Amino acid sequence: MALDAGLVGRSYPPSAVYEVGRAKIAEFAAAVGATDPAHTDADAARALGHPDVVAPPTFAIVVTLGAADVVLADPEVALDYSRVVHGEQRFTHHRPIRAGDRLVSTTTIEAVRSVAGNDLLTTRVDVATEDGEAVCTALSMLVARGAA
Amino acid sequence: MSARLRAADVAVGTELPEQTHRVTRADLVRYAGASGDLNPIHWSDRVATGVGLPGVIAHGMLTMGLAARAVTEWAGDPGAVVEYQVRFGRPVVVPDDDTGAEVTVRGKVGAVLDEGRVRVDLTVTSGGEKVLSLARATVALA
Questions:
Q1: What tens digit of pLDDT does each residue of B86-113 get?
Q2: A58: which of A13, A29, A68, A88 is 20 to 30 A away, CA to CA?
Q3: Cross-chain CB nearest to A88 (options B66, B82, B87)
Q4: How many structural domains is chain B composed of?
């Protein structure tokens, strides 16, 4: 059930707008135990030069996880989701994600590989504001472990 | 309020304060809700063992998020991380008890880059085994 190399470069339509809320940032920060006041107190964030509370560095996954679902929903991407584990993750932050951001994600299949019976799928999600300001690029490598 | 670390105060080899985090099933449930990752391998032993895992495992992204704290708390600004990558080498198995699993995060400056940026190399272990590999963050210091 190897992935078709012809999928590389396939891009999907932009996501609906994800509006970043202060409560969601606070909830996510608490879930990773991040207690920096810049996640919850706008004045503390401003003291560091940010316009509003900022998200932890891995918050972008909240935005990109849903966006990347379009890949798994693509009938031409034959990936057995029940056998999928997360192999690698990379975030490039052009600037921190902050409360009030209205973000649009565009997903592209970056690479497909087959290694030792496992299918490896790398997706790139480019996250930008509605107005086109680049905010974050997320690269996720998923591994579908071959059936034993 | 946190004070931002200055690039002038670090050099290659500078060590970050070590952090140890305890991860319980309750933490996995909380992370599942906050992140939207409801994959049952992170809360159901039945499903986890059914796909060949030793038991319920932590979300790789939770481990990655915990490890980021060593960097952001050191830098004094959670918005200072400009690049962050990891490879999920080995799962963190979280037993169904009150103790959970322990995740230890060590880091040191691996390179001093231009424009006040430094690369931090992280070593993240659980039960003495490395759980993340190639874990590194580029941080913009003051």
A1: 999 999 999 999 999 999 999 999 999 9
A2: A13
A3: B87
A4: 1
Domains and CATH numbers, chain A: 5-20+56-145 (3.10.129.10)
Residues of B in contact with A48 (CB under 8 A): 2, 4, 76-77, 79
What is the pTM for the complete model shown?
A: 0.96
A2 contacts: CB under 8 Å, gap ≥ 6: A114, A119
- B111: containing domain: 7-23+58-140
Q: Report yes or no on B64 lying in a domain.
A: yes
* For residues B1-11, average pLDDT: 84
DSSP 8-state symbol, B15: B
The pLDDT of residue A68 is above 80 = no
Identify from B6, B29, B73, B83 which residue to disrupt to test chain A contact, counting A C-beta atoms within 10 A and taking the largest count. B83
